[in-house]
Amino acid sequence: MKGGKGRGEARRIEGIIEKVLFICAALSVFTTLAILGVLVFEAVGFFSQVSIVEFLTGTQWTPLFKPQHFGVLPLVAGTFLVTVIGVGVAVPIGLGAAVFLSEYAPEKARRAIKPVLEILAGIPTVVYGYFALTFVTPLLQRVFPEMIVFNALSAGLTMGIMIIPMVSSLSEDAMLSVPKSLREGAYALGAQKHEVVTHIVVPSALSGIVSSIILAISRAIGETMIVSIAAGSTPRLTLNPLESIQTMTGYITQISLGEAPFGSLEYTTIFSVGLTLFVMVLAVNLVGNYVTKRFWRSY
Fold first, then answer.
1. CA torsion angle for 129, 134, 138, 139 (degrees, to 10)?
2. What range defines the domain where residue 12 resides?
3. Under 8 Å CB-to-CB from 246, ≥6 apart: which residues?
4. How far is CA 43 from CA 49, 79, 278, in A?
5. 67-76 burial, b for 16+ CB within 10 Å, e for fewer?
6. Is the pLDDT of residue 159 over 90?
7. pLDDT tens digits for 65-119?
8. Would you say residue 213 lies in a domain?
9. CB 72 within 8 A of CB 83
10. Among 98, 107, 128, 196, which residue carries the largest CB count within 10 Å?
């Protein structure tokens, strides 16, 4: 009797835990759908007054000035430019750090270096923004005298520094999950250290590495404070990193601070831009999930 009562109590607790976990999962899905619903609902009102073709193909973005133009390409180009610079900095440095920590660093050095590296992820982004504006930009102006104070290069480099821990930490975890037997088998066949890293460890951990890169790209696309402070607020269709640009998140911040009356056409542009940003991040994550599954290896 006692055993049966104990098993019944255990099943009841398991049932409660399962329901709580389901509620947590459902809440996450509901929140995402609610955000998407708000964006779509508000964007429909915007596109009822502005052609979606003009929005997606126009090369001028001046919703706050006369004559008004609603071509989102300058904002997309600015976001793309800063993201490419940031990822171009974070991926090689982050992967290099991950390889060093997982394959070369002594245990004591690893325990000392990894927390210091991960501190970068805990620094507020507004601090990064002013770091870019007051430190990185003056240094770059010594190399590029024609560079103005607000520019894409400074913001992109600083963003890259910020997302290095994201790449290095996740990539290192993926490399550490590669079984030692694979490494030992390669050494037994006469492989050198660098050959084991490049031909065994990195290919075996490729799915985790790709996941870290995709997460870093998503983080860079959605970054707000660094680009708002350091990149400027000039919607310009350019790939010149020395010029002032404006990203989609930077524009949303500008309008949200009261640049346009609530409920006006100009105000609803933030939802159309936000929906575009949502679709971009979703596309990046879908590609990342496909690549991760394509290269997934189970040990």
1. -70
2. 2-48
3. 61, 74, 75, 78, 227, 231, 232, 233, 234, 235, 236, 254
4. 10, 20, 12
5. eebbbbbbbb
6. yes
7. 888 888 899 999 999 999 999 999 999 999 999 999 888 888 888 888 888 887 8
8. yes
9. no
10. 98
Q: Are 98 and 36 members of one domain?
A: no
Does residue 209 contact residue 294 with C-beta atoms inside 8 Å? no
Residues 6+ apart with CB under 8 A from 219: 163, 166
Q: CA 82 to CA 152: how far, in whole Å?
A: 6
Predicted model pTM: 0.86
Q: What is the DSSP string of 68-118?
A: P-B--HHHHHHHHHHHHHHHHHHHHHHHHHHHIIIIIS-HHHHHHHHHHHH
The candidate with the shortest Cα–Cα distance to 102, out of 185, 204, 189, is 204
37 and 138 together in one domain: no
pLDDT in tens, 140-155: 999 998 888 899 999 9
Q: Are 235 and 246 in contact (CB under 8 A)?
A: yes
* Burial of 7 per CB tally in 10 Å (0-12, 13-18, 19+): exposed
CA dihedral 284, 289, 291, 292 (to 10 degrees): 130
The answer to whether residues 186 and 268 belong to one domain is yes
At 129, list the tokens. 């923004």
- 275 token code pair: 């929906």
Q: In angstroms, rounded to a whole number, what is the distance separating the alpha carbons of residues 129 and 171?
A: 26
Whether pLDDT at 3 is above 60: no
Summary mean pLDDT of the chain: 86
The per-residue DSSP string of 189-244 comes to TT--HHHHIIIIIHHHTHHHHHHHHHHHHHHHHH--HHHHHHT-S-------TTS-
Q: Which residues pair with 121 in a beta bridge?
A: none
Going 89 to 92 to 95 to 96, the CA torsion angle's sign is negative
DSSP 240-272: -TTS----HHHHHHHIIIIIS-TTSHHHHHHHH
